[in-house]
Design goal:
The chain is an alpha/beta fold. It has two domains: 12-108 and 189-330, P-loop containing nucleotide triphosphate hydrolases (Rossmann fold, 3-Layer(aba) Sandwich), CATH 3.40.50; 117-186, no CATH class. Helices cover 33% and strands 21% of the residues. Helix 5 (126-138) crosses helix 6 (145-154) and helix 5 packs parallel to helix 8. Bound molecules: adenosine-5'-diphosphate (ADP) and magnesium ion (MG). Residues 64-65, 195-196 line the site of magnesium ion (MG).
Length: 336
Amino acid sequence: MDKIMEQSPACGGAVDLSATPLLSVEDLHVEFSAAAPIRAVRGAGFTVAAGETVALVGESGSGKSVSALALTRLVAAPGRITAGRVMFDGQDLARLPQAELVRLRGSAISYIFQEPATSLNPVFRAGYQVREALRLHRGRRGAGREMVEELFRLVGLADPRRCLRAYPHELSGGMQQRVMIAMALACRPRLLVADEPTTALDVTVQAQILALLARLQRELGMAVLLITHNLALVADVARRVNVMYAGRVVEAGKTGEVLRHPAHPYTCGLLAAVPRLRGDADELHGIPGSVPHPAHIPPGCSFHPRCPRAGPLCARVDPEPEYFEEGRMVRCHYWK
Ligand SMILES: Nc1ncnc2c1ncn2[C@@H]1O[C@H](COP(=O)(O)OP(=O)(O)O)[C@@H](O)[C@H]1O
Ligand SMILES: [Mg+2]
């Protein structure tokens, strides 16, 4: 672990929110061209400071993954970024020449996804796959077996030697996700994008993987963008949260404040849908309906057809973002 930490420039540093953020996404638009344009991301914006964990939360289909992939222009055709800026460490990734972007993808920003089983190659041993990742980023000399073992220890794999030799199917889902995290750490990323990293795992393993991400973030000084549909998951892990709906952020703020005093009716709905340990089953309220398909976004506020607070204004006028308190933002005509 020491070797890895030495090489991490921001190691141990406290999050400085007054400094220029490491990542700043501004007015990001991503469209898939079809008969009617599919506007998957419509002006999303959020920031991540160096060493900070920030969550992007919303129901399935709200544009979280497309936003995450767009950060490094990984959205596959016919998808394309039609507007916006993705400032990372002073450079606009939306406009960076392809060759530089490829270098940056592997060296500064890395990703882990929902299904570790499909991200690992079934025919190669886990150790070999992580070693290949290391070789790619650090060259032959930086990719020794000890280095892989050290990474495996860092991600909490109990028997690193055995795991080195194991094929993916011989590892549990939680262990596979740890191997994926080890691989993502191989390039010493400054930002780890974790897209639903625990959704495919059972609840106890979910908690372990989240604790691991929190520990790595602290120890390596790495920033984490945690993407999830489960608002309950972010409480202990993320410092700030962005709630996304129909391709844009509708509420943002410090996690504790958003969870205690949600301003947007959508956030209230997401919170009400979180099951509580105590209380009656019929206290569990979902949000009626579903996220609109991005080819058919309703006019006005995109949430109004599902919104318990909607008034006549909401169907006609798209609410502008309003800023209140420190770092809080909401897009709703009636949030007060
Ligand atoms: N390749 C694609 N072609 C057309 N539409 C897509 C494509 N990928 C994603 N979308 C659409 O973009 C919207 C947002 O998707 P996504 O970002 O995956 O949502 P989330 O990650 O929040 O569940 C969805 O409605 C999805 O159908
Ligand atoms: Mg997704």
